[in-house]
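Deliverable D4.2, example record:
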Amino acid sequence: MHSSRHHSHGEGRSPADLRAAAFIDARFLRWLARLDDADGTGGAAPAREGLNDLLQQSLGRADLRCRLLRVYWYAEADDQATCDDQTLRVLPSGDADGAALVRHMAADLQALAASGRIDVALLGSDDDRLAPVVEAAKLAGLTVCLLADERALTMPRLLQQDPNWARLLREADRRVVVRSNDLAQALLQGAGAPRSSAPRDEELEGVVQGWWQGLPSEDQEALRDELPGLRGLPPEVDRELLLRCKNVFNRGLSFPEKRMLREYARRISLGEALATTRDVGSANPVPDDARMPVSE
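Output generated by the structure prediction step:
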């Protein structure tokens, strides 16, 4: 991978003139948005229409004042979407190990770096085989960024939980952090048909299970210790769960649904059986005055 000296590091351009391209693995983005959790999404294919705006905003928050020219989207199948400033790369069938993804992403990045058409490359992947690609792009004069969620803000913890991904993130010039909820909201806009207006108990349970499984163990322990002294849920937890449900069901929850959601959250956090909630919940509900008021 090489680049002419004239274009190295965006010479002769103001920060506002710097140009960027994003190289996004669709499977990684689903995982980053936690759409593969047991959250009731039903495996709906992510919608790409709002992706460019979200990535552009995320670059700005990372203090990278550049213009996103194009997003390269690497997926296992053609989603039939037509999106401005995006290029679809359909991976060959059977690419379970991601080798074709790494090869295609590296080729596209090399071609753009060699032509001097971009100054910033944003990669969305956790495949550590991309480490030499990142290094080569940096040597070619590009600013290389990697997309991550909030876990990248606590790198020592991530090094313990997911060392391969953490090491890849450390190779980048910047880590562009996007909230999982914001990403899920962008990817679920227009994805699939509207869901039923009345989520089933198991669907609400799935949202809570997905949230709980995504929490670091330290946060789980802290919440488990905190809940017995509270009458409801911590405000930040309540907001997180309500937003997840809104993303999944495409609407806000009714008051009875919120009560059930919060009951599931408390029981899962405290390690109690959810069957008890279903069997006796209607006969012995948690009193309304024990619920934290939450604005719609």
